[in-house]
């Protein structure tokens, strides 16, 4: 049986666990050939064990030049790149005045700079082919104002805003750019942490607040986020660009 993404190739950053691994597995299930990017070699080995990826890259994508190396390696492995999923991220969730220069830079580097560098690295290739799908993973907290997320939202807000400019600039080149913005996602990693008696009280509080504002009464699942990404990566979404798709159970609307 053919899949919606048969013949398509994709880079997924932050592919080692949680949302990224869910996206990787879904794109492969839909027929795509996937190249995974992770922060270290052990993480990449875990992806190889859990998903039939075609290849991978290890590096800190917020460092200048790393994203260019990743795209070069992906093109060499895949032949071409149709889809870029900017999932790599991870903010330091702290009250605004508890942040330090180090945690602020980590939050912006991991989320905004990583996405900027990856987009700039892949665009010349996509423009040369006259086709591309860029899908950024944003955050519902940008709209809900979730507790202790102001600095994280500053970084993710830039990720959201980027797609509107990309759309205006590159639509004529056959490239669409969209954001998928999930609410709190109960990944296996977060579930294990919360099930531990040593889970920090502050983390529990943040997650309780994040769940309380969801009308459907629960967090999202990685597979639900991955389904939205798979749709935006395919041809059924060819007339959708410059948009943010909220996968949030109704926690923010409109």
Automatic annotation (TrEMBL):
Pfam family, one: adh_short_C2
UniProt GO MF annotations: 3-oxoacyl-[acyl-carrier-protein] reductase (NADPH) activity
SUPFAM superfamilies: NAD(P)-binding Rossmann-fold domains
Reaction catalysis annotation: a (3R)-hydroxyacyl-[ACP] + NADP(+) = a 3-oxoacyl-[ACP] + NADPH + H(+)
Subcellular location: Secreted, Cell wall
Keywords from the UniProt entry: Cell wall, Oxidoreductase, Secreted
Primary location: secreted
InterPro entries, sorted: NAD(P)-bd_dom_sf (IPR036291), SDR (IPR050259), SDR_fam (IPR002347)
Family as reported in the entry's similarity comment: Belongs to the short-chain dehydrogenases/reductases (SDR) family.
Name this protein carries in UniProt: 3-oxoacyl-[acyl-carrier-protein] reductase MabA
Organism for this UniProt entry: Mycobacterium cookii
């Amino acid at each position: 049986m053919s899949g919606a993404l048969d013949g398509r190739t994709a880079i997924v950053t932050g592919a080692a666990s949680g949302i990224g691994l869910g996206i990787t597995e879904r794109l492969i299930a839909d027929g795509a050939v996937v190249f995974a990017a992770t922060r270290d070699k052990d993480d990449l080995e875990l992806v190889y064990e859990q998903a039939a990826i075609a290849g991978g890259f290890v590096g800190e994508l917020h460092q200048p030049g790393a994203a260019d190396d990743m795209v070069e390696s992906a093109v060499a492995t895949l032949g071409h790149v149709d889809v870029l999923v900017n999932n790599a991220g991870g903010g330091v969730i702290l009250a605004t005045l508890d942040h330090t220069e180090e945690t602020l830079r980590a939050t912006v580097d991991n989320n905004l700079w990583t996405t900027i560098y990856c987009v700039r690295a892949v665009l010349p290739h996509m423009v040369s082919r006259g086709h591309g799908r860029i899908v950024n993973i944003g955050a519902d907290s940008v709209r809900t104002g979730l507790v202790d997320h102001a600095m994280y939202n500053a970084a993710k807000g830039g990720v959201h805003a980027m797609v509107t400019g990309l759309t205006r600039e590159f639509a004529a080149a056959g490239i669409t750019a969209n954001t998928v913005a999930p609410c709190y996602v109960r990944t296996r990693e977060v579930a294990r942490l919360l099930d531990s008696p040593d889970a920090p009280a502050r983390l529990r509080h943040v997650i309780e607040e994040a769940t309380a504002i969801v009308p459907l009464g629960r967090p999202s699942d990685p597979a639900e986020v991955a389904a939205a990404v798979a749709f935006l990566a395919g041809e059924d979404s060819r007339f959708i660009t410059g948009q943010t798709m909220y996968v949030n159970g109704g926690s923010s609307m409109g």
